[in-house]
Task: structure prediction
Amino acid sequence: MFCDRIRDGDYLYRHSVHPLSFHRDIFDQSRLFHLVYNAVSDAILGSLAWERFVPTHEYIHAYGCRLAKKRNDKKRAEGKLNRNNRQIYCGAYGIRARFVRALVGAEELAEVASADITHVVEDGEIAHAELKIVLVAGTANVESTKTAILDRLWNASCGPLTHICDDDDDLDEHPSANLSIGRGGEYVDNRSYLSRLWCVVRFHLCSWLWRHGYLRYK
Amino acid sequence: MGNLLTKVRLQPLAVVGGSDVPKLDTPPKQLKDAAGYTYMYESANVAVSGAAEVSITPRSEDQLLRMTFSSVPIVWQSEINQEYQELGEALGEMTQLDEGDEWKVDVAVCQVACRVAAELLANSFPAPRIFSHGPKSLVFNWSRGNNNLYLTISSDYLSALLSSPERIKRRIEFSTKDMLEPALVFRGLLSAPPEQPVVSTSKATSQASGFVE
Result:
């Protein structure tokens, strides 16, 4: 089914949000991916957005703006929102699924037993995909492995696709100007008009199928 | 691709005796973090005052390594001092973030990180960028060109990783015990980068040095 399996050539997007992806207001690529170790599954997890459900730049950025808005709303509700921790979506970087899967067998990464990306709707975001890297049993230094993985992910990332959300047009200086070019180069969308149109149609079809319960796979 | 060890042999340290060690500008005598811990640098000793007391005995390797770092043009020492001051403050702030904050770091990890930072400062290493994977680790990061050097610091381990865009070139793991042997760590770092010595080669601009993008 073309709505569930993430193919090797598919793009996944990682959204950059200020201040999380920045250090002293300068973009820090090491902070782009946030990897979390889950002891239950003995795996390292991360979040991305699958192109199947963000078929154009507008959808990619809408996802990023919602991401920042949700975090701001949460902090506001807790009475903790201030100028320093305001979340500002800056843009997205793309990485092809094949680069994630290539972590298995990569040089100096012998502790990676498997690496994959699966479509897992989360927090109401239909485009959410879960990065899951299972480690060889007995891996002692998981933190070091995280560093190695994010280094590989950044080196395969291309972009950025910068954007200013409507919520942030009050800023005199938007931090998106400080994003740096991904190690994989600039993101180039070389799809034809018809191809993009097909992607949008497919997105609406998949969304419809999802919302009506035809895609409730694990 | 050049061999770093070859480059290192080109440095003055290979021909200058210990008594001829060129003097560095005087580094600050202490690195203080926002949590109130003070990391003292005295001669070739590093002592941590606060909850714990740690001192490191000077070794001949330390002197050689200091020479290695000091024997090529480096960023202004005052600039390095300022950056490490900010680093110490940033480390302390990361321990004080709310539970659940993505950049929250355990105090124990921060203490080890400050100890490592004090050693880096004592060796006039450019200040790193920092990030964390969560409360259990901190990562120091330097970039030069397309190469990246990471030092992943947890309460139990210290790991160095050198990478290029194409591959991970080298990973070195150290135990907590090794953390108290900084010369060992620095030897590992020095032997990792392939083309140039691990120091900056020009005056820094907005970031620490030419070693940091």
About this structure: Residues 1-29, 39-74, 193-213 of chain B have pLDDT under 50 and may be disordered. The CA atoms of residues 39 and 118 of chain B lie 6 Å apart. Residues 4-191 of chain B form one domain. Helices of chain B lie at 4-9, 60-70, 77-95, 107-122, 176-179, 182-191.
